[in-house]
Amino acid sequence: MATFKTGDKVRVVAREIKPEDEKSGLYYAYFGGLTGSVDAIYDDGSVCVDVDLGSLSEDARERHLAMQEAEKKRWLDGLSGEARGRLNADQKQLRLSYKILTSENDLESFKGGKPTDGKREKSSTSENKASSKTTEPRAAPHSDEGSAAESKRMSEDDLTKAEEEYLKSLKGDS
Known about the structure:
Elements: E1 9-12, H1 19-24, E2 35-41, E3 46-51, H2 58-78, H3 81-86, E4 99-103, E5 107-111, E6 114-115, H4 124-131, H5 156-173
Helix pairs in contact: 2-5
C-alpha cells in the first residue's frame, strides 16, 4: 500500500462496491477514476481528496459549476454596493472545491497520464478519464451585472426565488 502525503496527486481506483463500503461510506461507484490531490490524511486510514473538476462526469461538473455560480451570486448580492465596488475582478471570483473522503486503500499515485502503481486494476472508464482534458472548466460569465450595482440587500426569500430562476434558466440553455 502506498503512503501518501498532503499535496500528492492521486486517482481513485475503480472497483466493485463491497458491503463494508455501505457501512463506512468511504467508497461509491462514481468515485472510480476521479483524480485530485490529497488534502488531509486521517489516523483511521481515510483520506480527503480535493477532486480535479476535469475528472468529474459532465453532469456532476455542470451541477458543481451551477452551484458555484449561485453561491457567487448570493455572496455578491449580500455585499453592500460600496463593498462590491472595492473588489477587483480576481476578488469577485468564487471557486468551490469538490472534496471526497475515501480510504487510502482505494487510491493510487497519479502522475499526469498514467498511474505509477501498476498493481491496481484499471477500468475503461478510468482510462477514458485519464485521457480527457484535466484543466478546470471555467464558469460562464455572470450575465446579470446590473443587479450587482444595486445597494439594496435581498431577503432570504428573494434570494431563494432568484436562485431558482437562475437554475431554471441554466437548464433552459442546455
